[in-house]
Write a structure and sequence with these properties.
The complex is a heterodimer. Chain A is an alpha/beta fold. Chain A has 10 helices and 14 strands. In chain A, the strands form 3 sheets. In chain A, strands 6-7-8-3-9-10 form a 6-stranded mixed β-sheet, sandwiched between helices. A 4-stranded antiparallel β-sheet of chain A has the order 2-1-4-5, with helices on one face. Chain A is globular and about 75 Å long. Chain B has helices at residues 55-62, 84-89, 106-116, 121-135, 150-161, 180-195, 207-210, 230-236, 242-250, and strands at 15-26, 29-40, 44-49, 70-75, 78-79, 91-95, 168-172, 199-203, 215-220, 223-228. In chain B, helix 5 packs parallel to helix 6 (180-195). Chain B is globular and about 50 Å long. Classes of the chains: A alpha/beta, B alpha/beta.
Chain lengths: 308, 258
């Protein structure tokens, strides 16, 4: 069995801007694989190369064993691609869009309906509505249906949840989890760090380079040192003190707490309590926590000096 | 970024945005259904809601770009029906979609927007130097914008939006797609602006950022279903995070397809 995706040392530049600087990785059959990184990290460039819409400057890449340069016509028949920007026909109805995509792939909606039923039935009540008049969440469901209607072997979803509210994001990931049961390899990119935990494996990507690639749990386990969450009635003042604490690697706000990263093995919570008491802080709480992907991403960003 | 303690006082505060029974209809569709709220001077006010809940409609009205169907709305001391030009002069606006001009330099963007806001040459020069020094981007002032990383552009766009010292700045998903470190630096800027008395009205899909707001409203189906501090909302909905509060409220939304 061919691997769904193999990438060997791929480079791509736009003029002076290096979009991808030597990426290599493999995606395993049936895997839900996430690319986690901010805008400009190179996610879209990579997806465009793998869907044969761009040619790499150097290196090679294969989709289901087919070369992205030589075999581009064959690849186009077996991949589904949902670009970041809504790219369906706005003035065709929901149903017309779906029939159109089935038609160009020489299949019918009926033939593969089982694959999209779960998703499509949610927008079916609006099947006579022009696609351009749908809400964001509905557009997303239609675009996914259209990308699936020819039963692709590999599905590429470029930032499907960007700008989408928290409820629709959760629903979308539930759909992907169910799709995965259909033996389709899914590559999905996202700037939301919290979505990493929903993938089998993730690549952390920043400025065209992979900072790490592994299961979400392995990535967080690899983070050296320990992580603590600190809460206090006066969060702003305590943040300033924590940022100046010389035994801390970093102190970043994380919602209603501050995450303090400590590499120093001899460090004990009592040391921090004493430091904060010395600064006049009161009523704070310190808890040891397991690091998340966002903690790791920030640590790796600083370590790679990738952040200008 | 947690809230500066200075903002947590319970003193009676000056209202800078006054909204009572705001209704906006498009044909039979009610986008805003009797919204009522106050925003206080210097506050960081989070405006959350699912896609299609009616946030953008309300923001457009508060910015003087759209006329309400009914209700009493006053922004920065001006009436949202009759004094929309005055409103526009007293607010700043930025979003992920609408930011700066990509084909001109950093400095030229400041000069252009300063001119639009009616600043003098001297004021523009002073403000540009001040803000670029703050961002540590003085060396990039001649750089064409499109050559800069997204995170820098978003920070610049924020500075341009406040260069005329507006009373209120509206930020519509300002940190979308930005890397996690820059996202936090952006909130540092928001806190400084708030500390300097600028009211910040912000929307976001990052629920950790909702925690950084002084008060948060959650819109569902054109109505305001919740308005309180993040701490009180979590207490009220028995939730451990704002994400949970949001999911609990927004899931009750009726599915209209709008």
């Amino acid at each position: 069995m061919n691997l769904p995706v193999v990438v060997n040392d791929v480079h791509k530049a736009y003029g002076q801007v290096k979009a991808l600087s030597g990426l290599s990785f493999e995606v395993k059959p049936g895997e839900l694989f996430g690319f986690i990184g901010p805008d400009g990290a190179g996610k879209t460039t990579l997806f465009r190369i793998l869907t044969t819409l761009l040619v790499p400057d150097a290196g090679s890449a294969f989709v289901d064993g087919l070369d992205v340069v030589k075999d581009y016509k064959a690849i186009r028949k077996i991949v589904g691609y949902m670009p970041g920007r809504f790219s369906l026909y706005q003035d065709l109805t929901v149903e017309e869009n779906l029939k159109f995509f089935a038609g160009i792939f020489k299949t019918t909606v009926k033939e593969n309906y089982y694959l999209i039923e779960d998703i499509y039935k949610q927008i079916e009540p609006f099947k006579n509505r022009p696609a351009g008049k749908l809400s964001g969440g509905m557009k997303q469901k239609l675009a996914l249906s259209c990308a699936l209607i020819h039963k692709p072997k590999v599905l590429f979803l470029d930032e499907p949840t960007t700008g989408v509210d928290a409820v629709s994001r959760t629903e979308f990931w539930d759909m992907l989890k169910r799709l995965q049961q259909q033996d389709i390899a899914i590559l999905v990119s996202t700037p939301y760090m919290d979505e990493a935990s929903l993938c089998d494996r993730v690549a952390l990507i920043q400025q065209g380079k992979l900072m790490d690639i592994d299961t979400p749990l392995a990535i967080t386990n690899k983070l050296p040192g320990r992580m603590f969450a600190i809460t206090s009635p006066s969060m702003y003042k305590i943040l300033l003190d924590l940022q100046q604490y010389d035994r801390a690697e970093s102190a970043y706000p994380f919602g209603d707490s501050i995450h303090l990263h400590v590499l120093d093995a001899s460090f004990q919570i009592a040391d921090l309590t004493a430091y904060l008491n010395g600064k006049g802080q009161q009523g704070f709480e310190i808890n040891a926590i397991h690091a998340g992907i966002e903690d790791c991403f920030m640590y790796l960003m600083e370590k790679h000096h990738a952040h200008a | 970024m947690p809230m500066p303690d200075i903002l947590q006082s319970t003193d009676v505060r000056e209202t800078i945005i006054y909204v009572r029974d705001l209704v906006k209809r498009f044909g039979h569709f009610v986008a805003n259904d009797h919204l009522s709220f106050d925003v206080y001077k210097g506050e960081i006010f989070g405006f959350l809601g699912a896609n299609g809940a009616g946030k953008t409609t309300a923001i457009r009205i508060l910015c003087g770009l759209s006329t309400p169907t009914s209700g009493q709305i006053n922004v920065a001391g001006y009436d949202a029906y009759l004094q929309t030009e005055k409103i526009k002069q007293n607010i700043g606006y930025m979003s992920q979609k609408f930011s700066l001009y990509e084909d001109i330099s950093v400095e030229e963007n400041f000069t252009f927007y300063g001119g639009v806001y009616g600043l003098s040459r001297k004021q523009i020069k002073e403000k540009t130097t001040l803000l670029l020094t703050r961002l540590d981007l003085l060396d990039e002032r001649k750089t064409v914008l499109k050559e800069l990383p997204l995170g820098w552009k978003q920070k610049l766009a924020f500075c341009v939006a406040i260069m005329h010292d507006p009373k209120i700045v509206f930020l519509d998903e300002p940190t979308g797609g930005v890397d996690p470190i820059t996202r936090r630096q952006f909130w540092d800027l928001i806190y400084e602006a708030s500390h300097n008395g600028i009211t910040v009205f912000v929307t976001t899909h990052y629920m950790d950022e909702a925690e950084y707001c002084e008060r948060v409203t959650i819109m569902v189906d054109g109505r305001i279903d919740a308005l309180d501090t993040p701490a009180n909302l979590k207490l009220k909905y028995n939730a451990s995070s704002m994400n949970e509060v949001f999911l609990r409220l927004a899931r009750t939304a009726k599915s209209t397809g709008e």
